[in-house]
Amino acid sequence: MLADLKFALRQLAKTPGFTAVALLTLALGIGANTAIFSVVKSVLLSPLPYPGPGRLVVLWEDETNFQQASIAWPDLQDWQRDNTAFTALGGYRRDNYALTGRGEPEMLRGARASAALFDAIKLPPQLGRVFTAAEDKVGAPGLVVLSHGLWQRQFGGTPDALGKTLTLNGESYTVIGVLPAEFGSPTGVDFWTQLARGSDNPNWQNRSNHPGIYAIGRMKPGQTFATALADLKRISARIAQDHPDDSTGVTASGQLLFDSTVGDYRRGLTVLLGAVGLVLLIACANLANLLLARSAARESEFAVRAALGASRGRLVRQLLLESLVLALGGGVLGVILAGWARSGIVALSPAGVTRFQQTAIDAPVLAVTFGLALITALVFGLWPAWKAAQPDLRSSLASGGRTGSDGPGATRAREALIVAEVALTLMLLVGAGLLLRSFERMQTANLGFAAHGVLTARLSLPKKNYGTKEQIDTFGDRLLERVRALPGVKSADLATNSPLNTGWQTSFLPEGHAPWPAGQNPLAEMNVVSDGYFRTLGIPLLRGRAFGPEDGLKSPRTAIIDQAFADKFWPGADPVGQKMTLSGDPAVVVGVVPTLKVYGYASEPKLVQAYLAARQDAPDDFALLVRTDGDAAALASSVRRVVSEIDPNQPVWNVRTLDDRIDASFSTPRLYTFLLAIFAGLALLLAAVGLYGVLAYQVSRRTREFGIRLALGSLTSQITTLVLRRGLRLLAAGLAVGLLGALALGRVLGTLLYRTSSFDPAVVGGVAGLLGVVALLACWLPARRAARVNPLIALRAD
Amino acid sequence: MISLRHVDRVYPLKGGPYYALRNINLEVNEGDFLSIMGPSGSGKSTLLHILGLHDAAWDGEFHLVGEPVHKLDKKKRFELQKKHIGFVFQSYHLLDDLTVYENLEIPLSYRDVPRKDREGIVCDALDRFHIVGKKDLYPNQLSGGQQQLVGIARALVAKPALILADEPTGNLHSDQGREIMELFKKLNQEDGVTIVQVTHSNDNAGFGTRIVRLADGMMLK
Ligand SMILES: Nc1ncnc2c1ncn2[C@@H]1O[C@H](COP(=O)(O)OP(=O)(O)OP(=O)(O)O)[C@@H](O)[C@H]1O
Ligand SMILES: [Mg+2]
Description:
heterodimer; A: 798 residues; alpha+beta; six-stranded mixed barrel; 24 helices; B: 221 residues; Rossmann fold; six-stranded mixed sheet; four-stranded antiparallel sheet; 7 helices; 36% helix; binds adenosine-5'-triphosphate; binds magnesium ion
């Protein structure tokens, strides 16, 4: 065995060119697989870091016209009281809090949670305790449980944090515990505080109001997701019966917490895993080809060994050992490549998704890598070894091993491998081409507003200091006045929601329209904006006017609607001047604007859109939008300074350009597109090398034949054609098979594509052309060499 | 040891079947030292490859050490070959990528001789053929004659009962050739090894105990 190993190493060292190509091919194939698998493992395969993670579900309410709405507070209480399927079920609501009194004011992301949320997740605090159900009620003192991150950031990770007080939105809270870093549901939260403590909010008592509360529950043993959900739906049905006005059509719904955490990434990552699998297959095909050629050249060696008593198993073992050495070497190089690729992928991955950031090349990943290397060695090594190990003794010994020619079987096998490679490559190229086309369409999609040059920032005025409309308006007016005075600023405005940040949906009824049947009322996507909002965002007014000073508190309530709203309810009529009930109060339409893609490029707006005037409302939680004629990002520090000059305790956060935020919404498709493009490029390279290799090998085997042909008067161009024709036949067959594969692949890509047909003729034609050109080059090089055979030398060699 | 009855070897060529061997009847007893002679193309190598079990596409009956080869399957033939035969090739067929030492070791490793025993056996063989000094060289660093010596040593190293040699001295200096023949003779007489050699030289044939002549694939009486 050791001698065989030594011999294998010596054989590989003797042909450094072959060994280098083989190692590189394997390293690329195995490296790509290792990198993607490490991501898949971290994002899709690692269980949630909680005890019994499979029993956790996240819950919400579906309404007839609005899926995944939040849960009405009384509904949540009924679920908690009446369910029989959950050991614990707790609600949570995300809220932002201004932290003051500890240096710079900071905006923190909080979650108000039921005590039962901690019982459901079952991950004990790493320090101190969490609050109890008894402490979670109206009138109880404010308590906070810190996230690991906030604890590190604000208290340097010391136990002294316990018992300290934090001033949040001007109110004081006592720190009672710290949760471990793994505690990540809901995601991206700095601290947890009591949910029910604030439940005296009158809006919350209304069952038709869905105030941003979601829930996490732990199913009892023996329950499945279906039975647990059925249990809640039973409660929903009863609620709808008891409160038909508020709850008709409202029903419990949810998802396994794991699915909701990874759901978005499953398809994309699976496609990538498939893609790298194909790359590895192509790499294997290339290696099998190289080895077939190599073993043909070593035919006489095997014949002599067999004549000296080597059994077939023995010869196969010898050859497999060489493959294994190659595969393991490729595996080691592949892991190094994967390490680099991992950092690249993590850098490109969507920000704040810890499961991406936790990607690591760890022991299980390494195990898979080397398992893969072993399998690879078998896949590419076994067949050539098996073929080589049954030499025809008589003829290879008689011929002295100098000229042996391949049987038609071996040639066919090599050519079949090439056809497969070309086909797989075309599939990958089509996939990458479709994603690129779709990505390009995303980036140039018309969202309905002019994002370039706009800086956005978010502010939330604490009720304690800004309880009245007057206080809020004073702050807002001073803010806008000062920001507008900054150099480079063209305009500045406020809105409760900036684009890509929706939040408030409400019901409406146009005047003269029959009342909606219970549970059937449509919703409008709402925004409360200051006068110049549309100008600042470059949104044209299609009809009527923008908001202005005439929309005062004393004047009638006015609304601006989008084109879809107008088309739907006042088709053919002038919507300006029409009246309706909007969010419970009368309003008159004064203007019409185009429909905005408020959810970003990816989804069409489903709801009609309506705007109210900030002058007639008092939004205390809003976005500041600043249009500049220069570099919007450069304005960030000035905006921060202006805010702190007006109120040093007022935090401002999420100061980003609109471009930047739109860009962030591309991060996942960008990652997929980028990676698939790289893999397709790899496949193209490998296929070209494979095609070149096979033709070059055939040419070298036929040197004598070409020499004779030339000596007999053949034109060199005829020789070139001879070789080219062979290559083109393989190419054509590969393209035909690949087109069929590409059809299937398009279906798999399906929802990853944006406004791109899964069989876009331009894309398919383009990449087929690209593949054709590269392949032609790969054929032409050996063909040219064939034509340059010197007949004298070729014949003397015999 | 060897018994051939009505053995034919036919190559089906385009112009019709070509008889490389026709109706060969041959008895070789244990302890024989047989020389096969005949003009070029008469079928000597063909016959030797049949005896060496490299070729299976012949007709007739062939008994080797009492076993009916014509009835044996591939695996059994292989076992038989491994157990009894050492073959010296007309064109050496040394393994280019192995040193002299390793070339000699190969048949032993294929016969599962324990590693510790191999060294002694290989060194004996190196000694016997006076090539100890060459043991770490590769075949392309040897002269043709030296290569043939290694080829012969390799055929002998596993101590076969039957040696088949296709023109073993064809590339050797006549002194060296004589030495090989002396060695064959010694093996034949002292160790009882049966030897079948192909040769063009009457001198060499003289070392043997019997001569058969081939012409156009037929045995001359
Ligand atoms: N594969 C083959 N197909 C057709 N004919 C063959 C084949 N191999 C050998 N022959 C023919 O069989 C005949 C005997 O060949 P063989 O190699 O046995 O000759 P030989 O007696 O060993 O000659 P030499 O002394 O030159 O080595 C020759 O005429 C040869 O052409
Ligand atoms: Mg011969």
